[in-house]
Amino acid sequence: MSELSPWLIFDRLPDPDDLILFCLHFAGGQAAVFRQWQENAPQGTAICRVQLPGHGTRMNEPLLSDMESVLDGLLHASSPWLGQRFAFFGHSMGGTIAAEWAIRLQEENMPLPQCLFISASEPAHKHWWPPCSDLPTDAFRSFIFSNGGIPREVMEHEELMEIFEPILRADYALLESWAPKPVRSIHVPIVAFAGMDDTVVPQPVVREWKRFAASAWELRHIPGGHFFIQTHAELVMSSTFDCLTKLNEGALE
Fold first, then answer.
1. Which among 128, 231, 110, 239 is positioned nearest to 178, based on CA atoms?
2. Partners of 108 in beta bridges
3. Distance (Å, rounded) from C-alpha 84 to C-alpha 80?
4. I need a labelling partner for 25 at 20 to 30 A (CA). Which of 87, 91, 118, 251 fits?
5. What pTM was estimated for this model as a whole?
6. How far is residue 57 from each of residues 8, 9, 10, 85, measured CA to CA in Å?
7. What is the side-by-side strand order in the sheet with 45-50?
8. pLDDT in the model for residue 98
């Protein structure tokens, strides 16, 4: 059954009339970052937390380092649910994947999300940083730390780094090997979130998503740095759920 797919974690199974919000985590992260979302979601919204191979509950599975394999897995896992209303939310790497997922559905004439929420994320029409996934260990860790991709307490804990370094390398390789791609029109309303103090994905980079928007476009500013999804989780949830409530009421165009 589709609810047993390791790719998808439902904290409650959707009712037929529910809107499903598929949530994708950041590089090096896991689906647990969205654990509190269902209990705060508006009525008629079911949260589906996407868990990528090699992350979180799937730590024993091989990591994926190419976008096509990730998209293939997402399409297969989600296909039973695409007959009802749905939307995508992705933070950082998750936002890039969410956008590419929507584009893939569009290219294959499949049902489209009713909204695409892109949070602290870079579009794939250019490289936004030098390639780092193949750097030697010290250089890689220094690069990730300096770019805000990992807390100091994790970087200074050798046992933790032995776990997370391969995950981070695979995730960064996924993004590096996919870009650059042409700007492609996305015929779905896009709501983008930018951290006001984000130096990893600054506001001008998030604003580049407007070039992809062939439907409604909105940019919302959130206090905090790159991981505002954790430091300002309630604000991110309330902003997202405000849009979902309008979707459920047919008021978001």
1. 128
2. none
3. 9
4. 251
5. 0.94
6. 11, 10, 13, 27
7. 8-10, 45-50, 19-24, 86-91, 116-119, 190-195, 217-222
8. 98
Spatial CA neighbour of 8 closest among 105, 74, 83, 68: 74
User: Average pLDDT of 219-230?
Assistant: 94
Instruction: Give the per-residue pLDDT at 253.
Output: 52
Query: Which residues lie across from 221 on neighbouring strands?
Result: 194
Work out the burial of residue 204: count CB atoms within 10 Å of its CB; fewer than 13 is exposed, 13-18 middle, 19 or more buried. exposed
Spans of all domains in the chain: 2-123+182-248
Helix (H) or strand (E) holding 24: strand 19-24
CATH of 2-123+182-248, picked from 3.40.50.1820, 3.30.930.10, 3.40.50.720, 3.90.1140.10, is 3.40.50.1820
Strand partners, 49: 9, 23
Check whether 70 has a pLDDT greater than 50: yes
pLDDT band at 250 (very low <50, low <70, confident <90, very high): low
Backbone angles phi, psi at 208, to 5 degrees: -60, -20
Number of CB atoms found within 10 A of residue 66's CB: 13
Question: For residue 2, is pLDDT > 50?
Answer: no
φ/ψ bin of 24: left (φ > 0), alpha (ψ from -120 to 50), beta (otherwise): beta
pLDDT for residue 1 is more than 50: no
